[in-house]
Design a protein that fits this description.
This protein has helices spanning about 1-20, 20-45, 45-50, 60-65, 65-85, 90-105, 110-145, 150-175, 175-195, 205-210, 210-220, 225-230, 235-265, 275-295, 295-320, 325-345, 345-355, 360-390, 395-415, 420-425, 425-430. The chain has about 425 residues and is mainly alpha-helical. It has a single domain, classed as MFS general substrate transporter like domains (Growth Hormone, Chain: A). α8 (about 150-175) packs antiparallel against α17 (about 345-355) and α13 (about 235-265) packs antiparallel against α16.
Length: about 425
């Protein structure tokens, strides 16, 4: 074990000193960009698939979308095992290429059961990307000695913006999803070839920190034992906020285009809800580190929850009261922008807390956090679909908006977000 750790240390150090850390940071950011590009390319064409498969019932469409979180659920223990066993460097490449390949195959689906299976695969590789990419991000944070995770997630949002914009142009041009997704696959393949040499070896200190951790690793090298033990309270508290955040994200990723189509009733040239949401999400993530310096992480998360709550209620309550199509688009876009700004900082902040404060090995801690948060992704498609079918999607959006208020309350009263604890680690966190 000592020999193996020494070899990994040497590789890690050689990689760090061979390439400037700025170049390493940029390369990791491009992989986050690729993941965001892939995700939003699917989300931008959801109305097209909904029409092709005649999914006129909201709950029926929710069941189809449900296959994505099912795939993510199956990948939870798999992700922890593969990242700890093979290293995040290898898994970053495998997961993003699998993610892009799944998207490409989705464009070929002409049967609902095949679409469901491919969305399941899409969810599997989605979660593999999440764990391996964020493990890489934490490695680079250690290289820099400060919090830069929000920048990486900003890269993800920038990719999502690019994907939403490309999707918008493709829809207007009448390009079919298969040709659209072929272009996305080529772009991602080029990114992998360009950045793979700059990926970092996983730090071995997770195994070497203490004799206890070494024994735990020997007993459960795949992380299953740690995964199913009672997690530390910090991860439970962070996970609850992550759960609500992922419900919000699902409401926007999967339903925003449908909302503009079925509620706002705008032509395709004005279906910009998902696009403006992603633009503000990207903007917010690039401003997150600056916001930390101004207000601190707790205040930023409180503001984020408030923006989410206000944004959903603005769209649901005010977006339909005007007769003018222009005002409908403006008001609903404003609401979506507030939600995008609010949700932008939550996930990167949670991951940063894990890297700075968790006593659990990073890959396992991220898996546990994702497992708890994942419940939000799992219930969101069925929840929103059922409420929309029984009442209206606007009612569903107001209920989701209440979760923003819940985030404010949790952050305000939970010890995980104690400002004194963060300040004590300011030398590493900021």
């Amino acid at each position: 074990m000592d020999t193996f750790a020494a070899i990994k240390n040497k590789k890690c150090m050689n990689n760090q000193f061979t390439h400037p850390k700025e170049r390493i940071r940029f390369a990791i950011l491009t992989f986050f960009f690729a993941q965001g590009l892939c995700m939003s390319s699917w989300a931008s064409r959801i109305p097209d698939f909904k029409d092709v498969f005649a999914a006129n019932y909201a709950f029926y469409w929710g069941l189809i979308l449900f296959m994505i979180p099912v795939g993510k659920f199956v990948a939870i223990p798999l992700a922890g095992y593969l990242v700890s066993k093979l290293g995040s460097r290898s898994m970053v490449q495998v997961s993003i290429l699998g993610y892009a390949s799944s998207l490409l195959c989705i464009g070929l689906a002409h049967e609902v059961y095949l679409l469901g299976f491919l969305l399941f695969c899409f969810g599997v590789f989605w979660n593999l990307c999440d764990i391996s990419f964020n493990t890489q991000g934490i490695e680079v944070e250690r290289l820099y000695g400060k919090t830069i995770m929000a920048t990486f997630h900003g890269g993800w949002s920038l990719g999502a913006c690019a994907g939403a914009l490309i999707g918008f142009v493709m829809i207007l041009a009448g390009v079919s999803p298969i040709w659209h997704y072929t272009l996305i696959f080529i772009i991602i393949f080029i990114i992998v070839l360009s950045g793979r040499n700059y990926l970092q070896e996983s730090a071995p200190q997770e195994v070497e920190v203490s004799e206890t951790k070494e024994r735990n690793t020997a007993k459960a090298p795949n992380g299953f034992r740690l995964l199913f033990q009672k997690p530390e309270m910090l991860l439970l508290q962070l996970g609850l906020v992550g759960l609500f955040a992922l419900i919000v994200e699902s409401a926007m990723f999967d339903w925003s285009a449908v909302y503009f189509e079925s509620v706002v009733h705008v032509p395709k040239s004005l279906q910009i809800g998902f696009l403006v949401f992603m633009i503000m999400m990207a903007t917010g993530r690039f401003l997150t580190n600056y916001a930390y310096q101004l207000w601190g992480k707790r205040k930023v998360l409180q503001l984020a929850g408030s923006f989410i709550c206000i944004g959903f209620f603005v769209s649901a309550l005010l977006g339909g009261i005007f007769e003018s199509m222009a005002m409908k688009v403006i008001i609903n876009s404003l609401g979506f922008m507030l939600v995008g700004l609010g949700i932008s900082c939550i996930v990167p902040t949670l991951y940063s807390f894990v890297g700075a404060k968790s006593k659990t090995p990073v890959s396992i801690a991220l898996t546990i956090l994702s497992s708890i948060s994942f419940i939000g992704s799992l219930v969101a498609p069925l929840l929103i679909g059922a409420i929309s079918q029984a009442f209206d999607i606007r009612i569903a959006y107001m209920i989701i908006g209440i979760l923003g208020g819940c985030i404010v309350l949790i952050v305000s009263f939970s010890s995980a977000f104690n400002i004194q604890e963060s300040a004590g680690k300011s030398g590493h966190d900021q």
